[in-house]
Specification:
The complex is a heterodimer of chains A (448) and B (570). With 448 residues, chain A is α/β, with parallel strands linked by helices. Chain A has three domains: 12-260, Rossmann fold, CATH 3.40.50.300; 275-363, Orthogonal Bundle (Arc Repressor Mutant, subunit A), CATH 1.10.10.10; 365-448, no CATH class. Chain A has helices spanning 57-65, 104-110, 119-132, 148-160, 178-193, 209-215, 246-260, 283-295, 302-308, 313-325, 340-347, 350-364, 366-377, 385-393, 398-414, and strands at 12-24, 30-42, 45-50, 72-77, 80-81, 89-92, 166-170, 201-206, 218-222, 229-234, 299-301, 329-332, 335-338, 382-384, 418-421, 426-429. In chain A, the strands form four sheets. Chain A has a six-stranded mixed β-sheet with strand order 6-7-8-3-9-10, sandwiched between helices. In chain A, strands 2-1-4-5 form a four-stranded antiparallel β-sheet, with helices on one face. The longest helix of chain A is centred in the last third of the chain and has 17 residues, at 398-414. The N and C termini of chain A lie far apart (70 Å). In chain A, 40% of the residues are buried. Chain B is mostly helical. Chain B has a single domain (44-564), classed as MetI-like fold (Orthogonal Bundle). Helix content of chain B is 78%, strand content 3%. Chain B is built from 21 helices and four strands. Chain B has helices at 4-12, 17-34, 58-89, 91-106, 109-123, 128-156, 160-168, 173-208, 222-232, 235-264, 280-287, 289-311, 321-345, 347-391, 393-408, 415-425, 429-454, 458-466, 471-505, 520-530, 533-564, and strands at residues 209-212, 215-218, 507-510, 513-516. Chain B has a two-stranded antiparallel sheet with strand order 1-2. A two-stranded antiparallel ribbon of chain B has the order 3-4. In chain B, strand 1 and strand 2 (215-218) form a beta hairpin. In chain B, helix 1 (4-12) crosses helix 6 and helix 14 (347-391) packs antiparallel against helix 19. Classes of the chains: A alpha/beta (448), B mainly alpha (570). The A-B interface holds A 62, 65, 67, 84-85, 87, 89-91, 93, 95-102, 110-111, 113-114, 116, 119, 142-145, 151, 158, 162 and B 159, 161-162, 164-165, 167-172, 175, 179-180, 183, 186, 266-273, 304, 307-308, 311-312, 316.
Chain lengths: 448, 570
Amino acid sequence: MKGGRILPADVTILSLSHISKDYTMPGGIPVRVLDDISVTVGEGEFLAVLGPSGSGKSTLLRVIAGLVAPSAGAVTYRKTPIVGVNPHVAMVFQSFALFPWLTVQENVELGLLTQGLAPRERHEKAIAVIDMIGLDGFEGAYPKELSGGMRQRVGFARALVVEPDVLLMDEPFSALDVLTAESLRRDLLDLWIERRIPTKAVIVVTHSIEEAVYLADRAIILSRDPARVIAQVPITLPHWRERDDVRFVRIVDDIYQLLTARRPEASASAVSRRPPPIPTVRAGSLTGFVELLDDLEGRADLSRLGDELSMDLGDLLPLVETMELLGLAGVKEGAVALTPDGRAFAAADVLRRKEIFRDRVMEHVPALTHIVQVLQGKRDGRMNKEFFLDLFERTYSPEDSEKQLHTLIDWGRYAEVLAYDQESGQVYLEEEQGTGAADPPDGGPVGG
Amino acid sequence: MSWVARTENVRQRRFGWPDVFLLLFVLAILAALLSVSHGEVAPRPDVLVPVNLAPSALPGDALRSLARIFIAFAFSLIFSIAYGYAAARSALLRRLLIPLLDILQSVPVLGFLAASVTFLVALTRGSVLGFEIAAVFAIFTAQAWNMTFAVYHSLATVPRDLNEASDLMCLSPWAKLTHLELPTAAIPLVLNSMLSFGASWFFLYASESFEYAGHTVRLPGIGSYIFAAQEAGNTRAMLLALGAMVVLIIVVDQLFWRPAIAWAHKFKLEQTPSPDPSSFVLTVLRRSAIVGAMEEHIAIPILNWIDRVMARRRPGSGAGGSAVRLAWVVFALILAAVVVATARGAQPLVARGVTLLPHALLLGLATLGRVLASVVLGAAWTVPVGVAIGLSPKAARWGEPISQIAASFPANIAFPFALALFLDIGLSLNIGAIPLMMLGTQWYILFNVMAGTIAIPADMKEAARVFGLKGVAFWRNLILPAIFPSLVTGGITAAGGAWNASIVAEFVTWAHHTVAAQGLGAMIAEASATGNGAAILTGVVVMSALVVAMNRFIWRPLYALAETRFHVEA
């Protein structure tokens, strides 16, 4: 089946039909992570799955691999439904997932262990793949002796040695530095385009739009909470693709727009009808971002911004969402621009900024207003944090609840409406802010 | 280094109904064993042969003792892996096995000896074999529990990505065990094995020579040799034996544990390069041509063959879950029926035991006081000394191995001398038992305090120096908070050791004098010397309950505090 042979493009190799995945919270409430996802992968296709962090991309990949069973829907591999681990796939991990006590050679051979080969054959196959992936001379080294890039090469070799039909990659380049990632991407693409590996399809999960556009033939765009397919973007540019090519940039911009477009309120049908969580962004990062935008004349292309700050979607999107939520900036056609309020915020001094921020959060973040009201209702203005966590846990996982509360406390601290005592685990009202949240306070808070 | 495993369970588990059930279950077995007509079968004469004190007998005796420890260790190793694997793999078994392990760990080691020896002697009609098995079993119970926790904890926390990678490669359960799970457990297992080995010297001495139903049992071994030398007042033989023992401990450490630690270092999960602990012996072995050839032509082909045979057994083909569950239920029912049937025979024993309960509780409180005093007094001197050693790199290099050897040296050898001293100065064993208990257990605190001090990040020490922290301020703001978690860990280990030691420290025999303190340890020791099954049962039950209560009400809150407030991210 090796290289050269021209494959009919419309042969479906993998198909996901109406995949949903629910996790049950400790309280017994199901939370939906994947919602009704249907995708097919054809022979010879390189597919990218894109989405904001926490969108369940990795879960989707694990469903495809058979590591995680879907709550509804089915994965079909060449017309056979898959139950349990799919023996025709191999996976490359973000963390490499190498066995530190095995040498490069042994790590690669491990994948062949169950194939019933003689030790000699195993050895030879492993050597061949190690050579192909550029690890020649490192056969006897232990992973800890290698650089990150070399370790991920071992990860690739281990996946490729079993000659999988489908290669799955879970953010394979995101733990590497920029240059190393680039050279590894090129090498992988070279193996793929030149058909030096018998693999029939590749699925890569990533949160880098550029990476997806550089590598893939098609990008699946996922939403968050829960993950649904927003769009499927075909990428038909011929390889090798240039990043400053106008067409390349246009596709990147398009995807940015798809990802940042205000989505219509979730349809009431799904299991999870929960208020959208606030983005977990620190107040300090927010002010930094506003200042940066202000320096850039108050407006910037998202794709450029991500590029210049070397921030990927996972970092950038929550910031942008928070700005939109607070009305400090707006997104239009893939560009983020400060609103008049945003400009005022950027121009203000520290104390004035806090006032603007306070007005904004009290107006736009009902969860925070609610916390303040609860505290005001108490005579001592204090409440154990578990009380609020319990409230959150009705809708979010314990981990997410913790994140939500901490972000709210961070915002509340910056806005000087809330304070938090780590030792006793109590949230309490900031002293000067007892009179009512809507009134602008006259006395400046004590600095420190 | 820390004694991870022992403290792990203190931290996370709650005492619930399954524990009560299991406690009753363990009691039923103990009662059943003890009710086998204790002391009715007399030991055969060869068990009671006096010890030959000629120096030429010493090497043979030493080897016999060593063999007992290694045999027990082999069983501990197999047991810990099998038990830990079962508990980590099956949720059903986990709910049963982990609380059970918790309880087993709380039963004093010499309680196991007392219970098993009766049964085994009856079974073997008083032959040496029964006593030998009982001795090995006692040593096993001193070794196995913390090793098992170490294996269980490692298997339960195998990194998720490695687990997924193995599943995707369709590794068979066997390949997964040998390539992923055992390697993950290697370091904690080796460290805990070392700790267990140290403890076994202590119990070796107590399990080689003891009073059994009015007979003085002496199994040939270095422990009996020392005991006999003491009784005969033969100072030369005694010093010779003590010297042999120190040499034995050091040789085992150098030939066995150093290489084992250096070898286990290969299984570190962190992928950052770090200096490997070195072992001369391991380097020699690794470079030796003979060993290399044996590896290549014998070991590797065998392992390959096993891998291939096992590869045919596919994962996930667990034969019908419900059938297995049914089999388990049937098995558990049969087991319960057997225990109940045997325990019914033990009714009179239990009835007598219940009448002893109030008295045993009072004695238990006295011993509890001594245990606490020994930990506090032990900490009082080991904290300053341990910190001083830990702060000086030069001293630390010597301090660690020396305190390790001191910890594994069986302190109970010194008890008769201490007793002579106490009698001289007129100190009652009621107080004197406290320093005796400390002799064996303070080293655990010293060791942990040292390790905790060494682990204080250099930048924190530098910051303290830059801000001119000295004296009380230095201790209050840096040292005490930083070593607190290690101190708690050391305290837990020391307290566990002190409970075990109370059985020998509160009841000391020397040259046919026997002095006993008012305490639970003395009660158990006396009961097993005279063959009073009911008193053994009650004593062991009360002691186990006190250990569980102490874990619950003293150590767990302290541990929680250590985890949250004083956790230093290195």
